Amino acid sequence: MRQKTIVAIDGPAGAGKSTVAKALAKRIGADYIDTGAMYRAVALKLVRTGTDYNDPEALQAMLDGMDVDFSDGHTLLDGEDVSHLIRTPEISAVASPSSGIPAVRYKLTALQQAMGARKSIVMDGRDIGTVVFPDADFKFFLTASPEERARRRTEEMRAKGEKADFEQIKADIIQRDYQDSHRDFRPLRKADDAVEIDSTDMDIDGVVDTMMAFIDARDR
Ligand code: DC
User: What structural domains does the chain harbor?
Assistant: First the structure.
């Protein structure tokens, strides 16, 4: 890449955003920032400290003293590596509603913007192209059918030796899509100028190649 570049990748849960974003970041020599992990870290802190996200004062006090950062692909909450602790169904269940609270989004948006001010990044999430970096150099909106996303998640869990019920996973995905795209404040939405890529019948390399084609075409 010729200069500092910001790539925004938004889309619903399970569309393959993080895998694709990681691979794309490697190809263009940028850092990968997983904003979902940041909302999950907030959820973990809420659970650990017993903070009610509907209590504005308690929430603000918790957020004021909180730092979320990344190091070598690990998520750091106040300096502690919480990468594994944030990947549980309990944390997913708290991250979805708490990510709809404006104070939480203001705090994380500021941290995300500071990360993008320093270096080239590929950032994935729900509001990167619409709110965090409306002037991003490249914006993609990655989707896949709910069935395909549930199938991928089921396979992923079974590969790790975990029990997985396809129908339950599909129902959870549809429920999360609804919550993320219908919340009042900054819902999941495709930016008007984002390139939409439906990955239902594509593999990871196919998606990354498609994105690279857009980047190369404009960067040449
Ligand atoms: O992508 P994920 O499943 O790790 O995200 C966890 C939750 O955080 C999910 O419910 C949506 C929310 N989120 C958000 O509101 N905005 C972002 N930029 C990223 C995630």
Answer: 1-30+121-220 (3.40.50.300), 31-119 (3.40.50.300)
